[in-house]
Amino acid sequence: MDEQIIKEITQNYYRILDLDSSDDKEKVWMARRFSGNISGLTTLCYHMIDLIWRHPGTNGKTICEHSDVLQGTVSKVISRLIRVGLVTVQTGEKDRRDRYYSLTALGEELAQIHAAMHQLKDKKIEAILTQFNAAERDTIAAFVKKMLELEQSAL
């Protein structure tokens, strides 16, 4: 194998991972369009907001199932979103231990901005992928899938 190209791919992969920070371009883009304060929100926070937006009145178990995130992590993220006024919680009528989550007006606004950002990003990704032929896109898809599996596995 060509060691130089492997090194370049590896370095660029780590650069992509490093881009997910509090001041990455996507978060800055959303912050400029949002009427509230989103400083300190993580990518996981945005994905929880999106999930609740698509499934209003959902509970923690459903969030775990749709996100592959542990219950303890979901609880911490949801608590943070409640504290900053993006999510509300209702207790179950039959069982007071049950918790159901919905977005506040600010949460709805942020969810819509987040969805718009993904639509723009998806169009840009699609434009890049059209520069490759079908066989190359198959290779790219296989590579990205393997990288996802790597990130989801324990070292």
From TrEMBL:
Task: Give the highest taxon in the source lineage.
Answer: Bacteria
Domain (HTH marR-type): give its ranges.
2-149
- Give the matching InterPro entries: HTH_MarR-typ, Metal_resp_HTH_trans_reg, Tscrpt_reg_MarR-type_CS, WH-like_DNA-bd_sf, WH_DNA-bd_sf
Q: Does the keyword DNA-binding apply?
A: yes
Q: Name one Pfam family in it.
A: MarR_2
Q: Which GO molecular function terms does the record list?
A: DNA binding
Protein's UniProt name: DNA-binding MarR family transcriptional regulator
The organism named in the record is: Sporolactobacillus spathodeae
